[in-house]
């Protein structure tokens, strides 16, 4: 499997896992009073989780590209 396909799959999986983690966080810890701007609505915590999953996946993608580039040299 080529590097681009592998990193795309990893990033997509981390986005999904982040979204699930955000939803679980809202369900178990979320703000019940409704005054918390991020944790009071399920869709906000899910989006934040997906965003952080993307950031982690993009970081891994950069690391893998640098590692492959060094191996080619």
Walk me through the structure:
By secondary structure, this protein is mostly helical. The chain has one domain. The protein is 78% helix and 0% strand. It has two helices and no strands. It has helices spanning 3-28, 42-72. The longest helix has 31 residues, at 42-72. It starts with a helix and ends with a helix.
Question: What is the helical fraction, as a range of percent?
Answer: over 70%
Structural classification = mainly alpha
Mean pLDDT: 89
Oligomeric assembly? single chain
Uncertain residue segments: none
Number-wise, the strands total 0
Query: What's the overall geometry?
Result: elongated
Gyration radius over CA: 16 Å
Fraction of residues in β-strands: under 5%
Instruction: Summarize the biggest pleated sheet.
Output: none
Our count of helices gives 2
H-E order: HH
Question: How many structural domains does the protein architecture include?
Answer: 1
Distance between the termini: 20 Å
Compact description:
The protein has helices spanning 3-28, 42-72. It is mostly helical and 73 residues long.
Give the secondary structure arrangement, pairings included.
Layout: H1 3-28, H2 42-72
List the keywords:
single chain, mainly alpha, 73 residues
């Amino acid at each position: 499997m080529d590097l681009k396909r592998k990193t795309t799959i990893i990033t997509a999986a981390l986005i999904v896992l982040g979204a699930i983690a955000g939803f679980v966080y809202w369900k178990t810890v979320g703000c019940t009073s409704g005054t918390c701007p991020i944790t009071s609505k399920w869709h906000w915590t899910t989006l934040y989780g997906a965003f952080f999953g993307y950031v982690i996946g993009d970081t891994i993608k950069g690391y893998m590209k640098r590692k492959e580039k060094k191996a080619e040299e």
